Amino acid sequence: MRYKRLGDLPLAGKRVLIREDFNVPIKDGSVTSNARIRAALPTIQHCIREQAAVIVMSHLGRPELESFDPKLSLRPVAAELSAMLGMQVDLISDWRKHLDTQPGAVVMIENVRFEKGEAANDGELGEAYARLCDVFVMDAFATAHRAQASTHAVAQFAKEACAGPLLSSEIDVLSGTLEDPQRPLVAIFGGSKVSTKLKTLHSLAEIADTIVFGGGIANTFLLAAGKSIGRSLAEPQLTHVAASIAARSSVFEHVDVMTGVELNDQAASRLCLTDSVGENDIIGDIGPESARRVAELVHNAGTVIWNGPVGVFEIDQFGEGTRLIAEAIAQSPAFSIAGGGDTIAAIEKYNIEDKISYISTGGGAFLEFLEGRSLPALEVLDLNA
């Protein structure tokens, strides 16, 4: 696929509309993690240096009925971006009526999901976005798997449309890794359900040398191997799928797990071999010997793909497995790619951001790319289409 890139275009004096993914956590009116904003800074700063008039747009959360919700306003995000850029970034709510910006300045329009027709990829809304700019820049990899007005329709109507550096780098890194990975390739996948990552798991079975599962996904594989999992989260109806994947790929076999009667801050954790999980036990984490063996795999890997913690890492007594594996990835000489919201939260918790080779901003888009599926927001930029 060929598409224009931001660096290919002259920007001086032009109005540049950038679609970013600033769907960040907010508490008490302040951004609590600015990782996604930080990832987009090079794109915005490039446009500022080139003396473009910059307009940034993003979604935040899931407002009901595509209407204004003060709790999901981008005002805290605009304030955070102002601080990070060292310049004022005004939030424009009535952008259809009035939007004034100057070369070298940045403004942000209000949450795109407040607009009726955003989710439906409405052409009239896309055209209204396109009228704001001379150049549309799609830079939000995390939303590239969705055909929506601010990611897809706008590109159809814009005078020029291109991929931003963040989107381009995601595609370049992920494509290169999948097409020609350094071996062995170890894939570590957590999550609650096999069903939500089914296509990804089938794809990984074709390319990974070893797959390590965690969370509810691992429990389904334990069931498929004839192990008892007590009251743990699993999908018994998909054990045949798990067995099929295990039969045609190298799936890591857990030897021990951490269990509890409940999974909460007050719960006591208990070490169990995978052959001795009680009927009232709930698996909350992999065990220390399993974690040690995974760490050894990671140390000897050429490439590591990580999506999802292997336990309930938010609760410390069920987070040791995720911590040990995260630290092993950080210390490994392997090229490492990590993606997904919970994965990034774990990376931040264990303070290893600068020790992961590449942190993808995508969640669903990251998984769909691993599956080999086309991304609508990238397809619309295709010069060959």
Strand tally is 16
Q: Could you state the order of secondary-structure elements as H and E?
A: EEEHEHEEHEHEHEHEHHEEEHEHEHEHH
Q: Which fold name is given in CATH as the topology of the largest domain? A: Rossmann fold
What general form does the structure show?
elongated
Task: Provide mean pLDDT, rounded.
Answer: 94
Low-confidence spans: none
**Strand order of the main beta sheet, please?**
5-6-4-1-7-8
**CATH class call of the largest domain:** Alpha Beta
Q: For the terminal residues, how far apart are their CA atoms?
A: 9 Å
Helix amount, in percent?
25-40%
Number of domains: 2
Rg (C-alpha, Å): 22 Å
CATH superfamily of the largest domain: Phosphoglycerate kinase, N-terminal domain
Most strands sheet: 6 strands, parallel
User: Counting H and I runs of at least 4 residues, what is the number of helices?
Assistant: 13
What is the level-2 CATH architecture name of the largest domain?
3-Layer(aba) Sandwich
Question: What's the SSE blueprint?
Answer:
Elements lengths: L14 E5 L6 E2 L2 E2 L3 H15 L3 E5 L17 H11 L3 E4 L13 E4 L13 H8 L4 E4 L10 H9 L2 E4 L1 H15 L5 E5 L8 H10 L2 E4 L1 H10 L14 H10 L7 E5 L9 E4 L8 E5 L1 H12 L3 E5 L12 H12 L3 E4 L2 H9 L8 E2 L4 H8 L4 H4 L6
Parallel strand pairs: 1-4, 1-7, 4-6, 5-6, 7-8, 9-10, 9-14, 14-15, 15-16
Antiparallel strand pairs: 2-3, 11-12, 11-13
